[in-house]
Amino acid sequence: MNKLPAESKKEIEMLVKDLNEHSHRYYVLDAPTISDAEYDKLFRRLQVLEEQYHYIRPDSPTQRVGASPLEKFEKIKHTEPMLSLGNAFSRDEVREFDKRVKKVLKTDSDVEYTVEPKYDGLAMELTYRNGVLLRASTRGDGFVGEDVTRNIKTIKAVPLRIEGVHPVPEEIDIRGEVFIDIDEFEKLNKERGREGDALFANPRNAAAGSIRQLDPSITEKRRLHMACYGLGAVKGIEFRDQADFMTWLKKARFPVPLIFNVVRGIDNVIDSLQAIEEKRPHLPFETDGAVIKVNDFALQRTLGIKTREPRWAIAFKYAAHQGITVIEDIIANVGRTGAITPVAVMRPVQIGGVTVSRSTLHNWDEIERKDIRIGDTVVVERAGDVIPHVVEVKTEKRTGIEKRFPPLEQCPVCGSNVVREEGEVAFRCIGLNCEAQVLEKIKHYASRGAMDIEGLGEKNVELLYNQGLIRHFVDLYKLRKEQLLELPRFAEKSAQNLIDAIEKSKATTMARFLFALGILHVGEFAAKQLAKNFEKLDDLYRIEAERVMAIKQMGEKLAASISGFFSEKENLKTLEDLKRLDLKLTNPDYHEEGEKQKGLFDGLTFVITGTLSRSREEFEALIEANGGRATGSVSKKTSYVLAGNDAGSKLEKARELGVKVINEDQFMTLTGGK
Predict the structure, then answer these.
(1) Residues with Cβ within 8 Å of residue 497, at least 6 apart in sequence
(2) Taking Cα atoms as reference points, which of 576, 199, 492 lies closest to residue 366?
(3) Is there a catalytic annotation at residue 118?
(4) Spatial contact of 408 and 390, defined as CB atoms under 8 Å apart
(5) 325 and 346 in contact (C-beta within 8 Å)?
(6) Residues 6+ apart with CB under 8 A from 165
């Protein structure tokens, strides 16, 4: 380790201070003073010095990203409970709240309140010790949350060290809301739609799903924000009231709500609610209401709490934004995984200050349930759900020329068969050559756990695809060195290295190849199970699902996916093309008698509900890989309900029927932590 010279230490500390100042001006004040290129130059200089001298301050901006994925989130007990708020849905209910406050305080005088927008996000607590961010935790059940410190550090607006105030408290819990801007939310959902991933229903789900990623690099890509507005436990400093605390937060460089009003008397509160509602369509974030708090902290303590809600605060909910328009067409979008989503193309209509011309219809069950047809006049809503959705069909407006949009039998992109698995709402294209899926399929095919083609990362795949050199992973084996040399980023050596790596990949194991094919639900574990039970690739051609289900740890959904894939003519043709290109598969995993061991979940049925740290498909694949079944509805025969955040009616039904409910940690314990 190089000894740290005094001048280098001073430079590191100055760089940390300057970079944090620039981040504050960019992400909180929206008033940058240097260009992105200048910031990057300073950041790179800091990285070099930290690496050279192994001196890294806890508030260094380099500590915001780059952590390796966690296996699970640790539980954190809040020093003081994080309470939920009661709701008011009318002005009269707001006045009733004021009457209750005055009654407890035994006063007829006007009370001073604060009013701020209610952010549609995920409640969060930041704990600072001696001015340095110690941990960040979710609200959880109000008493115990999850440690998401590494993910919170990816939010540039959150200070890693408290600066700008004196004295710095010995310890302080600062509470707020993690959220995603509307523009970023819609961009994220467009990307997920293109890739065939399930869309986030609203910004809150997007924020919650992003914060609960075990891999912080995924969270970092989501461009989350935070608004700080609440105080938990505190040592070493006192605040007179909410306004005093908010002033301190701003001086300490914390991001605070965009609107914050201090008013006296309930009439002025209602005027403030009206003013925020008028600004609501133009706010960059989604809000479904406003929060009203008694300003004085001493009065808050007098008022206290009832059950799990404070008596000194309430959330006022605004009415939903709606509009009436006509569905001019319904189209089918094919995503990265082959999932097909029906989308309504509508006559443009203004809803909440936004022009709406398209709405996802989610799936064909939704179309059937609402009896949505091309030509229908419909009510479209943008409320807490930023994605416009069809609320109601005006059947009285029908003229008789409206047309139904039946489920598809063939993929609209490639013409391959479309399947729908038991318990699933989505139809999927199973074509190996589907252009809507091809780019991601090539990336997966070349990845480390699959064919492991060194030098063929995401950027090079996209380069080759955009240049028209590959349209399928079969085309990789037709590439010539001369073609690569004509492309940017390729020189003599790099071009030859890639050609050699592609050639090397022709000799691989059957398990790796099966995983590389990207068959729905077939991960590395399932691919290995198949390789153990089938000696040659040809043995899987046109295989019946029942034959696959005979293998222990192979569930019904997994078997149906495998059978469907190896029954598709175009897929088999592609496999034969690969053989002709000299693909050679060995199978060291094969055992003539197959796998006889008992699966962990043999005979068990699971239902998954709510937001989890990984996609629902991953949990379903893990269940089926262990011999269980994942279904879509809860019944008395259900063994377990795996419930994440925001679990809804399925959780309620499980409790009614006495079905055992488990959380993600308990599920992973059942699997042995796999």
Answers:
(1) 454, 455
(2) 199
(3) yes
(4) no
(5) yes
(6) 248, 251, 252
The 3-state DSSP class for residue 96 equals helix
Cα 674 from Cα 668, distance rounded (Å): 7
Distance (Å, rounded) from C-alpha 546 to C-alpha 555?
A: 10
SS3 161: strand
pLDDT one-digit tens code per residue, 494-505? 999 999 999 999
**What is the distance in angstroms between the CA of the first residue and the CA of the last residue of the chain?**
37
In 323-389, which ranges are continuous DSSP H helix?
364-370
Say how far apart CA 455 and CA 131 lie, in whole Å.
Answer: 44
Length of the chain counted residue by residue: 674
Angle at the Cα of 174 from the Cα atoms of 172 and 179, rounded to 5 degrees: 160
CA atoms of 69 and 61, how far apart (whole Å): 19
Residues 141, 199 contacting (CB under 8 angstroms): no
Amino acid at 284: P
**Higher-pLDDT residue of 471, 128:** 128
Pick the catalytic residue: 118, 156, 528, 557? 118
Per-residue pLDDT tens over the stretch 572-628: 999 999 999 999 999 988 876 554 445 678 778 888 888 777 767 678 777 876 767
| Other beta carbons less than 10 A from residue 141's beta carbon | 12
Q: CA 405 to CA 332: how far, in whole Å?
A: 10
Residue 418 · residue 410 · CB < 8 Å:
yes
Q: How many CA atoms lie within 13 A of 464 on its CB side?
A: 33
Q: Which two tokens stand for residue 105?
A: 């305080």
pTM over 0.90: no
For residue 407, cis peptide bond before it (omega within 30 degrees of 0)? no
Q: Which residue bears the tokens 């996609």?
A: 615
User: Which string of DSSP letters, residue by residue, matches 525-586?
Assistant: HHHHHHHHH-SSGGGGTT--HHHHHTSTT--HHHHHHHHHHTT-HHHHHHHHHHHHTT-EEE
Our CA angle for 408, 414, 415, nearest 5°, is: 45
